[in-house]
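Weekly puzzle thread! Below is a chain. First person to post its structure in token form gets bragging rights.
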Amino acid sequence: QVQLVESGGGLVQAGGSLRLSCAASGRTFSPYSMGWFRQAPGKEREFVARITWSSGSTYYADSVKGRFTISRDNGKNTVYLEMNSLKPEDTAVYYCAGTLRAGGTYNYWGQGTQVTVSS
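Winning reply:
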């Protein structure tokens, strides 16, 4: 059984920064890619960023491009989301997720961590 555990959320003022972490534990986990998603109150969950585990190639939603950076530490089975220049509209519960194959469904999910950006 694979578990994904996020950490690093919190309350920050607009313009500030946070770094989220997502650690995978359990049986050997070799994802094809890991992603970050978020869900704001009353809104659907949306894609934020993803990283291919082997190559490190990244892809971002337009809303966070240039402000957020996704990275991974293969040895620690951990993926990070560095968030800079935060805006109130970034307020959401952030989830990490993993998929085992290219184009596959993200079927491993963490419990989420709250990020609140005050104006």
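Puzzle host: Confirmed. Bonus trivia for everyone else. The longest strand covers residues 18-26.
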